[in-house]
Amino acid sequence: xxxxxxxxxxxxxCLGCHKNQQKAGCxxxxxxxxxxxxxxxxxxxxxxxxxxxxxxxxxxxxHLKIIDPGSTIIDLxxxxxxxxxxxxxxxxxxxxxxxxxxxxxxxxxxxxxxTLKLSGGCNCHVNKVxxxxxxxxx
Length: 138
Fold this sequence. Notes:
Blueprint (H helix, E strand, L loop, with lengths): L1 H18 L17 E7 L9 E7 L4 E2 L14 E6 L11 E8 L6 E9 L7 E4 L3 E3 L2
Parallel strand pairs: 1-8
Antiparallel strand pairs: 1-4, 2-3, 2-5, 5-6, 6-7
């Protein structure tokens, strides 16, 4: 009798576990402690780095801004602007999203827009899948 009861308990617990089983979000992975950033450089027609106005980065899948415009200048080098960093990883899909980067040259009022493909999501860090590193104004 005890043997039959144990068998029934075992079958019931197996069925219960299968019924309530949930898929893990991103799974287990080993990541480094680095903080990844993706930047873009803006230059004038002579290739000199410039400061731009009306800088924006928009995820075309969600139509949301990825970064705070006040935190876009990277102090490492003049003319470089932050596109995304690891703090924005959750705003990007694992496979990659098209991201629209737009800025205006204040000396000519010319606006340039480029599309980059960035991934994040379940990846360890944000990554640029494709797109330019430098945008040159005419």
